[in-house]
Amino acid sequence: MRTYKITSLLTITSFALFSHSYGQKMASLKDSYKNDFLIGTALNATQIEEKDPVAKVFIPKQFSAATPENIMKAEIIHPGWDKYNFDLADKLVAYGKKYNIKINGHTLVWHSQLPAFMHGMQNADSVKQYFTNHINTVAARYNGKVFSWDVVNEALNEDGTLRKSIFSDKLGPDFVTEAFRLAQAASPDAELYYNDYNNEQPAKRAGCIALIKKIQAAGVRIDGVGIQGHWRASNIPLKDIEESIVEYSKLGIKVMFTELDLGVLPNPWDGDAADVNMKATYSAKMNPYANGLPDSVQAKLTKGYEDLFKLFLKYKTNVSRVTFWGVNDGQSWLNGWPIKGRTNYPLLFDRNYQPKPAFDAVIALKK
Ligand code: G3I
Known about the structure:
By secondary structure, this protein is of the alpha/beta class. Helices cover about 40% and strands about 15% of the residues. It has helices at about 1-20, 30, 45-50, 55-60, 75, 85-100, 125-140, 165-170, 175-185, 200-215, 240-250, 295-315, 355-365; strands at about 40-45, 65-70, 100-110, 150-155, 190-195, 225, 230, 255-265, 320-325. Strand 8 (about 255-265), helix 12 and strand 9 (about 320-325) form a beta-alpha-beta unit. Helix 7 packs parallel to helix 9 (about 175-185) and helix 12 packs parallel to helix 13.
């Protein structure tokens, strides 16, 4: 009886996956955009280990690229000074090979999610040793196995200056160039990227361009820049995004949108940000769509994605990948940030893997 119920549930879910609003087979993002750019998603451990039977079928149909949402971050992959935990990253590489999905390693150098042994480390030589060991070990292990690396993540402030971090404090302002130099030596076959949020904004973009020029002037390889794309559906900076694609392309590098999601919930602060350390407290007022998304907001989200993908297509020779930060709304980090316990709707698929009107709009651009 129990087996029968589970089987029926799986059958119904699989049917729902392949039947769309009009009983048609669901279109595929990666197939629709195959001549334009890669379509990626962030993956969590459950998805990498193929523990979710729906995701197992769904992800390879929709996506041609993947970035690990957390499992390659230093606190997980390098938990002790001499201790590495490659289990999930190895599984991710195998997953990419099995389904022909290009893996973007995320991330070698980031001030956040550092291992506990790094907390409060004062000695500059120790920080340098960690930095060198970490990049050499992790980048070398996955050389020829990942397609690319976010070598350095979020090193800039909003005004374009270098962020104060353990790396800038202890290694000095050249640490970004040095990270790329080490990554190039350890992982010569991988593309190497700088990744940040709000780096489409003019001041931060100027700092980002200066940083990239500095790497290039040192004779070190950088292949691309990632604009994360954590925007709000009601406030997408299309003009800044277009100018950024043009300006970054002038540096002779690829441009990618690496963590795309469009939040629809009220923001407790002015402006957009993605600093994971910023938090605010819950109130029902700040969680207005707990029981469903009104049509007017759904329409705004749809229009936002349509505008963005029109722009990406206009610059398809410059844009090499567009990665969503999560597969479906239920998995998005935006349900927990900057306020825990909210119901957000930032992606193209709903909590049951059903395509939303925004998905139809993105697909329609290719019909
Ligand atoms: O795995 C632990 C678990 O063992 C523990 O019990 C639990 C308790 O809170 O935490 C779990 O770790 C969480 C982890 O996600 C895995 O789920 C962390 O608390 C949580 O802070 C972490 O959040 C991630 C965040 O980066 C933190 O750095 C988000 O999932 C992830 O989406 C987000 O991704 C970042 C990009 O890497 C860089 N750009 C911004 C983007 C959004 O913040």
